[in-house]
Amino acid sequence: MKIVTDADNFAGAKLAPGDALPAPVSIGREGARTLRAGFIPLVDAAVLIVAAEFGFAQREGITLDLVKDVSWANVRDRLAFRQFDIAHMLSPMPVAAILGLGSNPSPTIAPFSLGRGGNAITLSNRIYGLMQREGELAGDEDALAHARALATVVRNFRASGKPPLTLGVTYPFSSHNYELRYWLAAGGIDPDRDVKLVVVPPPMTSDALAAGAIDGFCVGAPWNMVASERGVGRIVATKQDIWPSSPEKVVGMRPEWAETNPETVSRLIVALDRAARWADAPENRTALADMLADRRYVGAPVDIIRRVLAGEFTIDREGNRRVVKDYFSFHSGFANVPRPNQALWIYSQMARWGQAPLSTAGIEATLSAYRPDLYREALGKEAPPIGSDAAIEGIAPGDRFMDGAVFDPKGMKDYVASFAIRATGHSQLPSEDI
Fold first, then answer.
1. Where's it found, cell-wise (predicted)?
2. CA–CA dist 55, 138 (Å, integer)
3. What integer is the mean pLDDT of 325-336?
4. Least confident of 169-173, 283-287, 429-433
5. Torsion of CA 124, 125, 127, 129, to 10 degrees
6. What is the percent of the chain with per-residue pLDDT over 70, rounded to a whole number?
7. CA neighbours within 13 Å on the CB side: how many for 192?
8. 3-state SS assignment for residue 310
9. For residue range 360-390, what is the model confidence (pLDDT) as tens digits?
10. Neighbours of 415 (CB within 10 A)
11. Of 72, 200, 285, 392, whose Cβ has the fewest other Cβ atoms within 10 Å?
């Protein structure tokens, strides 16, 4: 097989394990390296898996030793304790770490984003049935209508003295937590008062729903479709419904490790860029699904993974379907740029929900967590043009928030204060002008 090495043609390079690779590029004074990388079994770990299995890391003089873990807390701790060199991480984790939030915070930076998309919200059949009856759903409603119907159910539970619904998220500092909260609040549900949020590891969400331990969850692919295919839940919203550009997963590393190994970091970014281009190409999706289905990685049925990659959903036990365009973007649309304004949106949600006070110092720290400078330095002319990191989010066609709000990083305080449903108390906004 001819291997395409021109950067513009990498998306079409049909590499397979064992294929001949071009000679490694010059690897400089740091030499060939083995990097131990932690990951969680999710489809959005694809770029790391492709880089390791299809030769993109090898070409840059890097061996990726991928280690599947069971929880985000484990990944966080093992990176902090130097058991991992790099890690597949939730996009808010470097922000939380740099702000000193959560257990065992250790400074972490993100020089590469692993793409966009992949999340969804699934509710139990019992709860969705109540939404249909009490919220008068016809079956073809959008995400906001579903949230409002759930609000009716929640109010009726409270009025009748029933315990609140229990909903699962994968980690307190996660896109899943903030997206679920955003969806609930847009429908009129206070996520801290009207329901109970608990942490459930991604591979356990479907089983927890089936057992009745939770009433719904927000998680990454393929676990929402696993639940719907099993007939135990209904998918009621996807990431694209809430905010298409919501940041998802990143590659995290310790800042001192990055400073000590600058050439290795650059070579890693180049390898991941090539892998992301390959993963985004439609003609490679069959091979990608086959690899992800391997028990070493995601370990879900290959048919489900293929349909998830195509955005083709079975949303309920009746077999109803929905197609979500660009449900996964591994490279297109500048999906690999760690955009500082997205880090700031994450910080705004931490402030909104009482996880962190809003301050100028917090904004500066947040900006230091995402490192587009390392990304651009590694890719040079191949990097996308520098955009405005202070861009207003939610105004571009096809990239709007579900409630019509817009996010202006320059008006953080007003943005957080504009929400009728938000946390109060110790995290109330300071009086300083930010």
1. Endomembrane system
2. 49
3. 93
4. 429-433
5. 160
6. 91
7. 11
8. coil
9. 999 999 999 999 999 999 999 888 877 655 5
10. 21
11. 392
Q: How far is residue 127's CA from residue 125's CA, in Å, rounded to a whole number?
A: 6
Taking alpha carbons only, the member of 172, 108, 101, 113 closest to residue 369 is 108
pLDDT band at 103 (very low <50, low <70, confident <90, very high): confident
CA-based nearest residue to 88, from 221, 250, 279: 250
Reference 361, options 340, 347, 346; nearest CA is 347
Distances (CA, A) of 160 to 98, 123, 126, 222, 264: 44, 21, 17, 36, 60
Average pLDDT rounded to a whole number, residues 387-396 = 76
pLDDT for 434 equals 60
Tell whether the model's pLDDT for residue 100 goes beyond 90: yes
All domains of the chain in start order, with CATH: 7-116+247-299+330-382 (3.40.190.10), 119-245+314-328 (3.40.190.10)
Distance of CA 72 to the CA centre of its chain: 12
Distance, in Å, from the CA atom of 124 to the CA atom of 311, rounded to the nearest integer, reads 21
249-266 pLDDT, tens digit each: 999 999 999 999 999 999
The set of residues, in sequence order, having a beta carbon less than 8 Å from that of 86 and lying 6+ positions away, is: 35, 36, 37, 38, 79, 251, 252, 253, 268
Q: Which of 367, 345, 342 is nearest to 99 (CA)?
A: 367
Q: Which two tokens stand for residue 13?
A: 């390079």
Query: Phi and psi at residue 328, in whole multiples of 5°?
Result: -120, 130
What single-letter amino acid sits at 103? S
Q: How far apart are CA 62 and CA 70, in angstroms?
A: 25
